[in-house]
Amino acid sequence: EATQTVSVAASSSDLVIVPTPTVDGSGPTRTLHLIPAPHQSGIVFITVTAADDGGSATGGDGVVSRDFRVVIDAANDAPVFDPVGDVTMRKNTVLDLPVTGVGPGGGADELGQRVTLEALTSDPAILPSPVITGDGPNRVMTLSPTPDAGGRVEVTLVATDDGPPGGVNVTTFAQVFTVLVGGDNTVPTLTHGGGP
Description:
Structural class: mainly beta
């Protein structure tokens, strides 16, 4: 039987959690690839079957199968929000910037999580930390520069959910965008030169 060819295949008891595994390699050592589906967890039984091309006409077993159990633990996904583009605004103005698509990320098991947003700036002397209001998927971030201040400021917007921390769990997501405070929108003044 040394010249016989052995093929190896694998199947999953729950294709929603673990799609059909693949088997690579040849000879006495093969590699089994298990890739769980996104946002899925649970217990799955994997069956690995080896079959040779000698058949069973001589009374032997041409096929042998072995089962083992795989436990896919749930993991908390990072919260999400839609990308925020760079902003240009005039001095001495206030801008309400919508933040959309706010959510806990992940699958149905995370839908009940609460997401909070916080914004920090690289130069509070020009742009103090913005105030964020609202709840649910749509929030409003208010940009209110210091009076008469101008310049380029980086704003870091951070989302945090109340899912379990630690291990493979991810509870925060951040994005940095630029705010350019420029121009002038102050009321003009006239200084009297002392003449008639």
